[in-house]
């Protein structure tokens, strides 16, 4: 899980999740010799580049991806959601949220307007503070879910991590201003990757339904 958190922080491309889950099932996946693609919810990542495509991705059609580093296909029917996949997606989102917070704080400290760092302005301070709060709350939830492996804990961790990644990247863009949208900056890539991951199986609707069922049981 810690490795996936760091992969999310560094925006490592490729079907990491499907290949990891296939280790021990698909020959060569465990050693990294084989790249595996599989359906996660309605999405299949890196299908054309994979050596092995798992069952459930049949009939997938190309989908224009908002993230230029994550080619996507869409399957007509949603695939079953694996709780490990949900947790590891939360870990990736946590890593991306952490990176967004780091970039925002770094820029706020070095970018100057009116003769002082923009981090001295109250509005920017609030954005950076909210970034940190969301990251740390998500971190506690993700780490706890990794220990308990309880489905409700995993669902809560996924919701908090998705929010931390998506809202964190948007706030990071706000701190950077127009520069955050340029290809020279990695900030927009954080947001686009967070958007794509949020659409994987076990996202907002599924996790909210699971938590609601748990609370009303």
Task: Please write out the topology.
Blueprint: H1 2-10, H2 16-22, E1 36-37, E2 39-40, E3 43-45, E4 52-53, E5 61-63, E6 72-74, H3 83-110, E7 112-113, E8 116-117, H4 122-148, H5 151-176, H6 187-198, H7 204-216
Parallel strand pairs: 1-4
Antiparallel strand pairs: 2-3, 3-6, 5-6, 7-8
Helix pairs in contact: 1-3, 3-4, 3-5, 3-6, 4-5, 5-6, 5-7
Please give a quick description of this structure.
The chain is an alpha+beta fold. It has helices spanning 2-10, 16-22, 83-110, 122-148, 151-176, 187-198, 204-216; strands at 36-37, 39-40, 43-45, 52-53, 61-63, 72-74, 112-113, 116-117. The longest helix is centred in the middle third of the chain and has 28 residues, at 83-110.
Give a structural overview:
It is a single chain. The chain is α+β, with helices and mostly antiparallel strands and 217 residues long. Helices cover 56% and strands 9% of the residues. The chain has seven helices and eight strands. It has a four-stranded antiparallel beta sheet with strand order 2-3-6-5, with no helix packed on it. Strands 1-4 form a two-stranded parallel ribbon. Helix 3 (83-110) runs antiparallel to helix 6 (187-198). The model has no long low-confidence stretch (mean pLDDT 92).
């Amino acid at each position: 899980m810690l490795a996936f958190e760091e992969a999310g922080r560094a925006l490592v491309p490729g079907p990491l999740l499907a290949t990891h889950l296939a280790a021990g099932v698909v020959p060569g996946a465990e050693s990294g010799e084989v790249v595996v693609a599989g359906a996660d919810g309605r999405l299949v990542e890196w299908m054309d580049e994979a050596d092995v495509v798992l069952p459930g991705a049949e009939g997938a059609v190309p989908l224009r991806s908002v993230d230029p580093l994550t080619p996507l296909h869409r399957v007509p029917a949603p695939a079953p959601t694996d709780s490990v996949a949900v947790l590891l997606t939360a870990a990736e989102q946590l890593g991306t949220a952490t990176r967004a917070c780091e970039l925002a704080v770094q820029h706020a400290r070095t970018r100057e307007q009116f003769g002082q760092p923009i981090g001295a302005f109250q509005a920017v301070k609030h954005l950076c503070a909210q970034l940190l709060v969301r990251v740390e709350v998500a971190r506690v939830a993700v780490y706890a879910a990794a220990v308990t492996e309880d489905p409700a804990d995993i669902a809560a961790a996924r919701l908090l991590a998705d929010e931390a990644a998506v809202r964190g990247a948007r706030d990071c863009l706000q701190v950077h201003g127009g520069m955050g949208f340029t290809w020279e900056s990695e900030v927009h890539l954080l947001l686009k990757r967070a958007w794509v991951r949020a659409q994987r199986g076990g996202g907002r609707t599924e996790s909210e339904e699971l938590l609601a069922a748990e609370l009303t049981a």
